[in-house]
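Holo prediction — zinc ion.
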Amino acid sequence: MNVLKSIFTYRCPKCRTTKMFIEPMKIKDPLAMHEACSNCGQRFEPEPGFYYGAMFISYIMSAWILLILALIMVFLIGWSLDSVKWIIIGIGLLFFLKTVRLSRSIWIHIVVKFNKDLHKKIKENKSINQAKTV
Ligand SMILES: [Zn+2]
């Protein structure tokens, strides 16, 4: 599994086998994460305030995407600034949770290094266990 697939599917950054977030997502607590990876033990919140850096990633991603969309709507499609403002606010709210989860995933993938040997070992163990049960 490559790093982009791991980031977009919210996998453990160290072994890329388990999911970081509790699914399905609950509206009450959309950022609920597992405490640690069940395969490699990597903690998903290594220290308090770990995800402050993810806020910058979230801000940069949403600001650029929304700015580009707004520019397209105003200059290429020709909509008025006032209507574009409300559309952009709506899109921003719709994708807020997706952006926040994605930025957390990007942040932990930047900080925690991928362990290729560990990934191989876990995959081998899984296939051995599957062979035993069949
Ligand atoms: Zn792991």
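READOUT: The pocket of zinc ion is lined by residues 12, 14-15, 17-18, 37, 39-40, 42 (CB under 6 Å).
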